[in-house]
């Protein structure tokens, strides 16, 4: 009886580990660039919104750049805008994947959230890759292979957990069959 209870406890532990590990292994890392200015009212509204998204989506990396009082951040803003084939239109500005969001209201916030969710599911190119000019080749490769490589790790973990569960279930059934 004690042995069968141990197998049950072990089975529950394996299932819990699987439920925690599997979803995390499928999440794609997402990088978002947020350009803002100190004293900008729309920026002040967007920043806590982005912080709440960071809490909700742990795979989200937000890189923040203040541009009113930081010359190097302003220069980076100009370079990023140019690499996205756009001009600076003001702050707040968010770059994620191949999208640029300027300003902040509920609709823009919802679009940013949807884009983050899409990138978590499907993988997106980072603003840094676009800035470095690797956007064309990297984007094509990511569209074909990066999801495959990342989900392969998740599939391996899933397969191992499933096999462990089946072996454990077999041992429990064998033990119960031997007692009768």
Give short descriptive properties of this protein:
single chain, 180 residues, alpha+beta, Glutaredoxin, 4 strands
CATH hierarchy, class of the largest domain: Alpha Beta
Widest beta sheet: strand line-up: 2-1-3-4
Radius of gyration: 23 Å
Average the pLDDT over all residues and give the rounded result: 81
Topology:
Layout: H1 2-26, E1 30-36, H2 41-56, E2 60-66, H3 71-83, E3 93-96, E4 99-102, H4 106-122, H5 127-131, H6 135-179
Parallel strand pairs: 1-2
Antiparallel strand pairs: 1-3, 3-4
Give me a quick take on this structure:
The protein is of the alpha+beta class. The chain is built from six helices and four strands; from the N terminus they run αβαβαββααα.
Describe this structure in words.
A four-stranded mixed beta sheet has the order 2-1-3-4, with helices on both faces. The two termini are 13 Å apart. It is an alpha+beta fold and 180 residues long. It has six helices and four strands, in the order αβαβαββααα. The protein has two domains: 1-28 and 134-180; 29-122, Glutaredoxin (3-Layer(aba) Sandwich), CATH 3.40.30.10. Mean pLDDT is 81; it is low at 136-150. The longest helix has 45 residues, at 135-179.
């Amino acid at each position: 009886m004690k042995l069968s209870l141990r197998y049950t406890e072990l089975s529950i532990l394996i299932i819990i580990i699987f439920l925690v590990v599997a979803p995390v292994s499928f999440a794609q890392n997402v990088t978002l660039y947020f350009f803002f200015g100190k004293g900008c009212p729309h920026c002040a509204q967007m920043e806590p919104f982005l912080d709440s998204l960071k809490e909700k989506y742990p795979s989200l990396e937000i890189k923040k750049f203040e541009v009113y009082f930081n010359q190097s951040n302003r220069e980076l803003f100009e370079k990023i805008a140019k690499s996205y084939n756009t001009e600076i239109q003001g702050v707040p500005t968010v770059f994620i994947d191949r999208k640029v969001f300027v300003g902040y209201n509920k609709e823009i916030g919802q679009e940013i959230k949807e884009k983050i969710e899409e990138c978590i599911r499907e993988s997106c190119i980072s603003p840094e890759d676009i800035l470095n000019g690797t956007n064309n080749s990297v984007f094509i490769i990511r569209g074909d292979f990066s999801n495959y490589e990342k989900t392969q790790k998740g599939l391996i973990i899933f397969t191992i957990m499933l096999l462990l569960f089946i072996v454990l279930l077999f041992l429990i059934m064998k033990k119960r069959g031997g007692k009768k």
